[in-house]
Amino acid sequence: xxxxxxxxxxxxxxxxxxxxxxxxxxxxxxxxxxxxxxxxxxxxxxxxxxxxxxxxxxxxxxxxxxxxxxxxxxxxxxxxxxxxxxxxxxxxxxxxxxxxxxxxxxxxxxxxxxxxxxxxxxxxxxxxxxxxxxxxxxxxxxxxxxxxxxxxxxxxxxxxxxxxxxxxxxxxxxxxxxxxxxxxxxxxxxxxxxxxxxxxxxxxxxxxxxxxxxxxxxxxxxxxxxxxxxxxxxxxxxxxxxxxxxxxxxxxxxxxxxxxxxxxxxxxxxxxxxxxxxxxxxxxxxxxxxxxxxxxxxxxxxxxxxxxxxxxxxxxxxxxxxxxxxxxxxxxxxxxxxxxxxxxxxxxxxxxxxxxxxxxxxxxxxxxxxxxxxxxxxxxxxxxxxxxxxxxxxxxxxxxxxxxxxxxxxxxxxxxxxxxxxxxxxxxxxxxxxxxxxxxxxxxxxxxxxxxxxxxxxxxxxxxxxxxxxxxxxxx
Length: 476
Prior knowledge:
The protein is an alpha+beta fold and 476 residues long.
């Protein structure tokens, strides 16, 4: 799926490649594209990703310059080209397609974000609204997580493949946001998704695009922002009823988390249609160009699995468990699954709750098993069960006392099932994913599985629950 070798300057590199100086830009402001190309002239076409990609315009006749590729942890300093984002462009996720000026039009025109996806010659940026709060939903695009898995320049937050780095090990890892990739346009770490091989995991087309397409078709209007936008502006959420995240939103800065928590405490609602949420803490450089994450304590032996260790300086769960915000944690589900896994769904409970309205589900029914809803990564709350009653959160892991578990999925322990869970807090083999919600100022819903967006086009009950959650949490 991705080439783990260092990204070198060779004739095999694409004719035109690039990245944005910053992934978030306000309508009416200037977007700076950094591009390296062997073409004498090149062009960029811009598409907004919604119910379907919409061509918003482009710029052509740009004089090309070629500059070698850089490292994963240093600004690549490619030539800059400025584009004035029109005032009338709606907030959204945009993809720029970079091409040699002599290339013809895109044929056929892209019908969905998947058809725009590529490992080079693409860049992603988010247009934020000129005035916030005009929509009820603010959608958070996890640029940090996308760059954490981005291998452009020969490394990611999971390590370096540069020969110069052989034998050198540090507990602090740094990546630059000023390189190709970050949701699209770069090679990514990880294995193909056996349950949906059309696009690589850790890309926009795999996680966020399906949710955005469904939500816009369903009639929901959202404004959009990036992690860095939310990190910098504590007032960005003002006027919104719901802050939404989907798929895989793993890397959060301390300020990002503080601003989201303050939004909830003021009565704002949060919906997380994903998992492995807020697992690692990162720190931005002052100019927002690089991020760093301290995954290992000093003296950790080479080859150790950071997820299995205690003492990780930037493990949220060891210092300020993410349960206090989301209600669940990856350490109670955990693991990752490379190939096909045994299909697993949530055994639902409290089906008289409004979230289940119109689904036809009754307590004890199973949600989503046919299409393997639970996984590839999932979160859970520490819980107990009465002999003949529903599961309930114990709170011993930091989950708020009022967290209502709406569904439980016990994770198989047999490796032959394709499930491999990493033990983190104790040696007890039982692990379970739990989806549910709690209210603490505002209401927080968590789906507790990264694959929730994947099932939107496949499972009518998942669609109905999603529609219900968005409706409930955006009420005036």
